[in-house]
Amino acid sequence: MIPGPALRGWLAAWAAHLKWGDVLVLATALVVCGASALSLWQGGRPDKAIIKAGGRVFAEVDLNTARILDVPGPLGATRIEIQPGRARVAADPGPRQYCVRQGWLSSAGAVAICAPNQVSLALSGRNADYDSINY
Amino acid sequence: MTRSTTEIVLTPTAEDHRVARHAAAAIVLTVAEAAIPLPLPGVKPGLANIIILVVLARWGWREAVWVALLRVLVSSLLLGQFLAPGFFLSLAGSLASLAVLGLAMHLPGRAFGPVSQSVIAAFAHIGGQLLVARAWLVPHDGVFYLIPIFALAATLFGLVNGLIAARLLEEASAPAPQQTGV
Fold it and tell me: Measuring CA to CA, which of A35, A87, B92, B162 is 20 to 30 A from A123?
């Protein structure tokens, strides 16, 4: 939308009261707004995936690099795929495939459990929004 | 008739009149603003700060302190908030922003106008309020979760109030035959 000449004139009259230092202060204020939002509102971002097999921790992997893990269980291997910021169960020998159909997990506290094969994938973060999330 | 020796006579100076007039204007703005419904407690325009900025620029920091503190006291009495939590939050915010304004007024005027002072004071205001809220009212770090919203409100209302103050100051300093109200 292009502002009409009346609106533009009105805005210019107000903008005339802004000095360059004021613009600097305003820009700093906006940066503070953005930085505080980014640092305070990212509590749900996971930083680690905890993979358990048979009730024991099989591996704790950070979510920075993409990798694929095969976790052995009583029915066979459950394949877990890690990507930056998210993780999923890519394949599982279980009959109902609930953990596979959950898809990508991307918030701290999210859990995918492959009960028949006794494998679970959980994401943990420093400031988790929830203690646990399931679908 | 001779004057009683026990009678106390107060003779208000021109400065007293000025402080009272400006404080009255600030109180009216605060009370009017209290009628505006707002989505989140703590986020308000703070229109009274326009008066504080004008007083600061024209009459100095001491008078601005008088006006600001009278504003907090009297508006809390009028709104029934005196000594309630809201009063202490308001007081803490005012004291913090007055302290910061005392420093910000010495920024070079060539580059930094009322808008800078307004935005800086608004941030000091939310800072003072949040510290009191964290220490006393909500002893949990959860209050800091709201910082981005408060910061955005401080930026926006700081800009608007500062612009209005700048315009009032410009009109007041322009050679006009009649006396302007504020």
Answer: A35
Label each residue of chain A as H, E or C. CCCCHHHHHHHHHHHCCCCHHHHHHHHHHHHHHHHHHHHHCCCCCCCEEEEEECCEEEEEEECCCCEEEEEECCCCEEEEEEECCEEEEEECCCCCCHHHHCCCECCCCEEEEECCCCEEEEEECCCCCCCCECC
Residue A41 has a pLDDT of 79
Instruction: Examine residue A129 and state whether it is found in any structural domain, yes or no.
Output: no
Residue A10 structural domain: 5-40
Q: What is the ipTM of this complex?
A: 0.82
- We report the CATH number of the domain holding residue A109 as 2.60.320.10
**Does residue A63 sit in the same domain as residue A35?**
no
Question: Is position A23 within any domain?
Answer: yes
CA distance A107 to chain B (A): 18
pLDDT at B175: 64
Reported as a pLDDT band with limits 50, 70 and 90, residue B52 is very high
In A, which residues are within 8 Å of B170 by CB distance? 17
Mutate to test the interface with B, among A14, A20, A22 (most CBs of B within 10 A): A22
pTM over 0.90: no
